[in-house]
Amino acid sequence: VQLQASGGGLVQAGDSLRLSCAASGSTFSNYAMGWFRQAPGKEREFVGHIRRSGGTTYYADSVKGRFTISRDNAKKTMFLQMNSLKPQDTAVYYCAATTVVLSGINQAVNYRYWGQGTLVTVSS
Predict the structure, then answer these.
(1) Segment 44-63, tens digit of pLDDT
(2) Distance from C-alpha of 42 to C-alpha of 108, rounded to nearest angstrom
(3) Which of 6, 94, 96, 97 could bridge 31 with an S-S bond, Cβ 3.0-4.6 Å?
């Protein structure tokens, strides 16, 4: 499956932004999906995960209550709604696909397919 993330940009602290991840080339609903981010000079970190049906989501503590992941399997697209953005949310955001559905969903190594990333910059 090929993935393409989009929707990043420059926003101010407290603003909202919605990222999209469009899939092609394979059956999107076969994959659980995740969002990761990588800030300058830091390792890639888990943001959140959504199961294949979209019925269950998991989030990193740092974004819980502010970010929401959803997906539209008919349109082969996943979304990341980011509210109450903070300067520390500044990073390149990546979407990824996996067949892992239980343990290890927060580990980048368990995701086989990756999008190219989209930059989110939050100014104070």
Answers:
(1) 999 999 999 988 999 999 99
(2) 14
(3) 97
